[in-house]
């Protein structure tokens, strides 16, 4: 059975709790304001009218400035968020590499956490028992299997999360940035596994700011701005469309102007007394 993703007219509103401006003139009045003012709830639209179609073989890049809605769209596609409007149809098993630490229990042991996370991924106890040795080996945590998660370093926890999340090949892979954290040895291992999983996936949706990697991996690109699709098409065109957005911002123009001045000064053309 072939896999696909079909999102049509997706909109997402989220509740946002806003606290009145508490900037006060004195420490006491700040304390008083903090104690008495209550945040009020308002709804915010973070995705609007987003449509996307991906078929087998597609590798879709999600592009957009910080806060454009890329991670939120990945969460909607993964099923973690229910859209407020529109529909999402997905055929095929999904693996979301969005938050490696999600679902961990600090007081449970490493071994127990493997079972907890694997259950959340839909694996049976038997399947997890079969995968356990390779997960511990990949994460380098064999000697810590019975230690509480709380005593692991953040790098060790990240290794464990990565090892569990990528232990099984899925049809559809949803990723937020190409994985690149950890010490040098682990990064090499993780990169090799990611490459393998991407090759083995029928569909990949990947949010990233790394144009070179996106050109190598993806055939399609979807550009989001303020939660709306501004472009969807071949990756090179999508990257150009995204560049056009951020190159039109005043911040980008100001930075380019500063860089031009610095270059001219370095080349000895900069003002001075001309002598
Ligand atoms: N649960 C939430 N409640 C309220 N606002 C949220 C929530 N999740 C995301 N947002 C807001 O939605 C917007 C989009 O966030 P999102 O994380 O999807 O952006 P992004 O494109 O992935 O950004 P980045 O490139 O910085 O990772 C942001 O303004 C963010 O503050």
UniProtKB/TrEMBL annotation:
CC terms in the record's Gene Ontology section: membrane
Domain ABC transporter: 31-251
Record key words, sorted: ATP-binding, Nucleotide-binding, Transport
CDD domains per record: ABC_KpsT_Wzt
Gene3D superfamilies per record: P-loop containing nucleotide triphosphate hydrolases (3.40.50.300)
Signal peptide stretch: none
Keyword ATP-binding in annotation: yes
Superkingdom per UniProt: Bacteria
Record-level Gene Ontology MF annotations: ABC-type transporter activity; ATP binding; ATP hydrolysis activity
SUPFAM superfamilies reported for this sequence: P-loop containing nucleoside triphosphate hydrolases (SSF52540)
InterPro entries the record matches: AAA+_ATPase (IPR003593), ABC_transporter-like_ATP-bd (IPR003439), ABC_transporter-like_CS (IPR017871), ABC_transpr_TagH-like (IPR015860), Bact_Polysacc_Export_ATP-bd (IPR050683), P-loop_NTPase (IPR027417)
Family: Belongs to the ABC transporter superfamily.
UniProt-recorded name of the protein: ABC transporter ATP-binding protein
